[in-house]
Amino acid sequence: MNPKVTLGILLTSSISFAQLESGSTSSSTGNVTKGSTDVTADNTAAAAQKADKKDKITEVSFNLGGLFAAGNSRSAAMTAGVRSRVKRGDHQFTGAAQANYARAATAVNGSEAGQPTTTTVENVQALLRYDWFFAKNWSLFLQTAGRHDRFQGLELRYQLAPGVAYYFMQNDKVQLWAEAGYDFQYDIRSDDYIKNADGTPKLDTDGKPLEKTEAVHNARLFFGLDHKLFKGIEFIASVEYLQDLADGNTFRFVFDSAIKAQIAKHFALATAVTVLYENNPLPGVDNTDVISAVSLVYNLF
Question: Which secondary-structure segment (H or E) carries 144?
């Protein structure tokens, strides 16, 4: 996806799952309630380490946004999502879903008619995660995610990622933790991204025809920070590295950062930047996406 297009379209979004190409997994970090623009892996689930075995937490939040323009450029974008977290003692379940859609066009020589609008963003994503906090500083987790993204050439990307998390710091103001594990990815690719206009198959970097499906096995490392700077002001940052276990030359980095400010009892304003890099994308797809977002989030619980 073109970073400039995404930057304009998602200014009102609070989440957009990982937008990566073929060659490595897509278990990127993200956070609806904190305003991150990328969510196939849920760093919030890991960050909420238990303070007491009797903990009972129920959280539900929604986001809905849009961007509309007329004149020299015409565009319309919509984004909607939901996130939930339920924790009972040592056990925690997290879920998230998001849909983004946009169309845009430009005028021609000042004509209001201009060019017809075309779809510029189209993706649907969902995530489920379970955490078991089995010791004071440790948790085991299993997360699964699905994604459809027209402009990443994905009819469907399915992921399954088990792992372990360790918390270096865990208090009311600072959470610093690391995760390590395995990530399985199964892609079903769009024909437009694996075939040329004449129907012949496109070739990968080794000169082999691109397949309709691909299974990738990766090692995953993740570091996260959640720091409450002042009352009502929170800073969140994370970095994730995924290494293809079968191909040492294929890897991916994901960086997330966000600042969240509470503006009312149930409302928060969040701004975030996500940088996605993959060194071996599908042909015709950029290897780097930069996504920014300013979000209004409603917290039901």
Answer: strand 138-149
| CA distance linking residue 13 with residue 55, whole number of Å | 31
Q: Which of 92, 94, 29, 70 is nearest to 241 (CA)?
A: 29
User: What is the rounded distance in angstroms from the CA atom of residue 193 to the CA atom of residue 28?
Assistant: 22
Considering only CA atoms, give the Rg of the chain. 20
DSSP for residue 200 = P
Q: In the 8-state DSSP scheme, what is residue 111? A: B
pLDDT per position as a tens digit, 45-80: 555 554 444 578 898 988 777 778 777 778 888 878
| pTM of the full structure | 0.75
Q: Give DSSP secondary structure letters for 207-266.
A: SPBPPSEEEEEEEEEEEEEEEEEETTEEEEEEEEEEEESS-TT-EEEEEEEEEEEE-SSS
Q: What is the pLDDT of residues 146-204, one digit of tens each?
A: 989 888 888 998 999 999 999 999 887 898 999 999 999 999 999 888 888 888 888 87
Output the CA torsion sign for 265, 79, 85, 25.
negative
| Cα 241-247-249 angle, rounded to 5 deg | 65
Tell me, rounded to whole angstroms, the distance of Cα 253 from its chain centroid. 12
Nearest to 241 by CA among 269, 271, 277: 277
Tally of residues, the chain: 301
Residue ranges and CATH numbers for the domains of the chain are: 3-269+279-299 (2.40.160.40)
Q: What mean pLDDT, rounded, does the chain reach?
A: 78
